[in-house]
Amino acid sequence: MEKKEIEELRDRVGCAALLQHDGWKLDLKESTRRAIKYRRNASIVIVIHGDRGWFDPLSPAKGDVFDLAQHLGAQGFAQACDHVASLIGFVPSPQPWQRDNRVSPLRSIAERWMYRRLPGDDSPAWSYLTITRRLPAAIVAACVGQAVLREGPRGSIWAAHRRDDGELLGWEERGPQWRGFATGGSKELFRLGPSAASRICITEAAIDAMSVAAIEALRADTLYVSTGGGWAPASENAIRRLATHTNAQLVAATDNNRQGDVYADRIQRIAAETGAAYARSRPRAGDWNDDLITLFKRMPQAPITAVGRLAAARFARRSIYCNRLGRQ
Questions:
Q1: DSSP secondary structure of 192-213
Q2: 8 Å CB contact between 181 and 171
């Protein structure tokens, strides 16, 4: 097959077509506009780059549509080309967030961030975090104080990802009906706590980082971070830099599932390669916010929107979750 024909196939057949034709199911809850997750049994493939690329979060596998065909079982490149060619004309199901192209250009990341207001008492984002997500007001206030939260549209939140020097790169977007990442932004780490902390608690989502901080009453020796639901090279490099802090300890507080275990293994390897201490902390439910919500249900007398640090500490000690992250 000529190079021109190969390029034409790549343009005409997307990764989603291969996956849907092969029986993979869209995981809408865990998908975003730019990272669409498909599952088949315990296997996962995430489609990126506008349907032109993909990666397997549980292995190093990644590539274009031809690599995906081989990942799904094609024997060699020639068979992969034949399989891709057979799907010309196959139209995958549209995603619910697909929409017409934007008419006006986007503002810069910094301009869009500054345009959004800070969450405050009784604002939609504040209510989402303190009522729906059951985060103590003290934790939300700490995020606002560290300039890592903004009000997103329709009651959602924006949780900042920044470089070590504080430069804004993008933000996690999460709300009652929305999950995504800043268009045109890039992931590194969401950070809550002292930048020079020796203990680095690594989660997969900003709300999980806030939830662990709440359960631990915002430990003064800990920086709570989130990779934003993926494992970008910039995120790994940032974790490696944090691992070089004096007496550093990396705590893998990733989700209680296979993907969380894969990320925890990667964190453990970073600790081994940098000489940092390591601990694995696994939530009892699927993620740390689920644990926090369960914890509040067990303690109905604890006020949801006005828990101070001392109250949060008593709350954590009295709960079944009193085991500290670093000791699990």
A1: ES-TT-SEEEEESSHHHHHHHH
A2: yes
Distance CA 46, CA 31 (A): 8
pTM of the model: 0.68
Contact of 225 with 202, CB cutoff 8 Å = yes
Q: How many CA atoms lie within 13 A of 164 on its CB side?
A: 13
Token code pair at residue 221: 């020796």
Percent of the chain with pLDDT over 70: 84
Q: Is the pLDDT of residue 19 over 60?
A: yes
Instruction: Give the tokens for residue 157.
Output: 């939140």
**Interstrand relation of 53-55 and 149-151 (parallel, antiparallel or unpaired):** unpaired
> Quick one: which of 17, 4, 10 has its CA closest to 81?
10
- Go through 74-104 and write b for each residue having 16 or more CB atoms within 10 A of its CB, e for each that does not: beeeeebbebbeebeeeebeebeeeeeeeee
